[in-house]
């Protein structure tokens, strides 16, 4: 059975197929495009360190960093490396692990179906031994040390540590040298068979491809998972208050780096409501500190920020936060200016003209996104893991009202934290 999902505003469609094994497969045909792109993703990320396996009574708790470790190991086969196979096919392959998802992907301009078979095949073929797991600890240990020495990485995770008291989002995705030392092949296999099941995964393909051939390959190759049922994910109860107001660290930088964070306390839901909240927060942040805002231009003209300054809002079912940051010789002055502007907006409300302009900007950027197969694919799987349809974004933007944004200012922009990386010489 095929489900065709259409969006008349975009003049785009997605074809959906459920394989006999239970995997949801989606294809967005893009006639005339030379590049094809595929992502095979599992709803399993670094936050999932405590869970109950279907059929078991007691929770399983695994070392931090195991989802990322597992992603690394999936590319190693008994008789070679998956990257070598993609090189022979003239394709480019990659993977990533974030807080909530692990994804394997490739892009190609030729031999797409051969590449797809490699993708679907190796993600179902875990190969862990005592020897290759120990070897990987050294490789990932070097990666952890590299990120520990990266000021941009540290300023971000220090901000998360300030925002969150107990939620695992504050923990580095790769874990620590100590935590990965506890990983063994048995734990890797347990996590693999728990989370790498067809029902917990999605395959998305975009490009000038034959959807029926994609579905045929998935039907033939994707096998039922060993673990049946839904995993119970266990997260600690995160209080609404922040963990600490600031974190300051000295590193090898020439100008101080800073991240200002606001913790989202309106959590506990996903789907369309979560999508709408994300859009409301994007509009709010653009009005507050976007490049067309009064505050941004005042800070820029005064030399307090530069072109690297920016913001982001992370929105998940069980947590959320906005981060504003960049380089500045006076991070506290930037924070004071933001807090003052927040208070002004709370008092006066946002201007109708600013609201309409930012809405048009977001709708235009959303439409433009569908010109890039990479952007489409990454957006699709990110939304899918939150129970959101990529085609609902335009509708959600249209539905946002000015009072929604004023409400977000009242609810969200409170109790800021700041993370600063100072030059080592600064005393």
TrEMBL record:
Residues in Peptidase M16 C-terminal domain copies: 182-360
Superkingdom in the source lineage: Bacteria
Pfam family, one: Peptidase_M16_C
GO MF annotation list: metal ion binding
Gene3D superfamilies noted in UniProt: Metalloenzyme, LuxS/M16 peptidase-like
InterPro entries found in the cross-reference section: Metalloenz_LuxS/M16, MPP/UQCRC_Complex, Pept_M16_N, Peptidase_M16_C
NCBIfam families: YfmH_fam
The protein's name: Predicted Zn-dependent peptidase
